[in-house]
Write a structure and sequence with these properties.
single chain, 292 residues, alpha/beta, 2-enoyl-CoA Hydratase, Chain A, domain 1, six-stranded mixed β-sheet, three-stranded mixed β-sheet, 9 strands
């Protein structure tokens, strides 16, 4: 596929997605959002891709929504009546697509990331940042509420009090504050950021089975929304039941015993168990288990 507002490439099983509107500080448009959803579909369908690194072209990661056309990007249907099937927040569509990924997602935040520029990274698994990065959940300063499902993600990442402070004030803050709060994993000098992100991507995937990673990712994210260990126990049990007799498990155990690197044969595109496929369709693991 070709993209107008993204630069997409794959090297050594690591995909790179670059937000590519540097003349606008990679400000978000619906067209860019549509391309992000398309590229995620391409990534999930490609078994050669084991992890994804997102970054921005130029001096910014993403300066938020492109407001050059005023409030048009927010206004929706002229009738004034809300319908989710028509008026759903586009940032939420992207966040939910990232949440539904079968591959680890890493944000390498190379510069300012405000509004949707930061909220869209919250469903990614790990965020690294340049020392020059700045952040802001600036929605209240625009007369808006947070989008991209960030009211769900942000408190789970940094705690409710910190999330409320940033959202209420809408202030822009420096990278070291983001690090202290746990919003980002680590800070790096600008020319060291991408090498650090790629090294992390290789560490996450070099010795792990892709199907097991895909299922584990879904399990851990889902458990953030559940109140107890019972559902986790059932999902653990289903995963062990399926993978414990799989070709990947046999290869992983034999490689360990043989003291060699594993070569896992299973593929995310074809070998996810039926319950995970249905889980992705219904969205809620508890409903899946209750229907079983």
């Amino acid at each position: 596929m070709t993209y107008q507002f993204l630069d997409y490439s794959v090297t050594d099983s690591i995909a790179t997605v670059i937000l590519d509107r540097p003349d606008r500080l990679n400000a978000f448009t619906e067209a860019m959002g549509a391309e992000l959803i398309r590229v995620m579909d391409e990534i999930d369908a490609d078994d050669e891709v084991r992890a994804v690194v997102f970054t921005g072209r130029g001096r910014a990661y993403c300066a938020g929504a492109d407001l050059s056309e005023g409030t048009d990007i927010f206004e929706g249907d002229e009738s004034g009546d809300f319908r989710m099937d028509r008026d759903a927040d586009y940032g939420g569509m992207i966040a939910r697509r990232f949440y539904d990924s079968t591959k680890p997602l890493i944000a390498a935040i190379n510069g300012p990331a405000v509004g949707i520029g930061i909220s869209s990274t919250l469903p990614m698994d790990i965020r690294l940042a340049s020392t020059t990065a700045r952040f802001g959940f600036v929605f209240t300063r625009r007369g808006l509420v947070p989008e991209a499902s960030s009211s769900w993600f942000l408190p789970r990442l940094v705690g409710i009090s910190q999330a409320l402070e940033w959202v209420y004030s809408g202030r822009v803050f420096e990278a070291d504050e983001a690090l202290r709060a746990g919003l980002v994993r680590s800070l790096h000098e600008p020319d060291e950021l991408l090498p650090a992100a790629y090294a992390l991507a290789r560490e996450l995937t070099s010795a792990s089975a892709p199907v097991a990673v895909a299922i584990a990712r879904r399990m851990l994210w889902q458990m953030l929304a559940d109140g107890g260990p019972e559902l986790a126990h059932e999902l653990d049990s289903r995963g062990i039941f399926f993978l414990g007799r799989s070709a990947d498990c046999k290869e992983g155990v034999h490689a360990f015993l043989d003291k060699r690197a594993p070569h896992f044969p299973m593929r995310v595109s074809t070998d996810l168990p039926d319950y995970v496929t249905r889980w992705r369709q219904v969205g809620d693991a508890r409903a899946l288990v209750e229907d079983a």
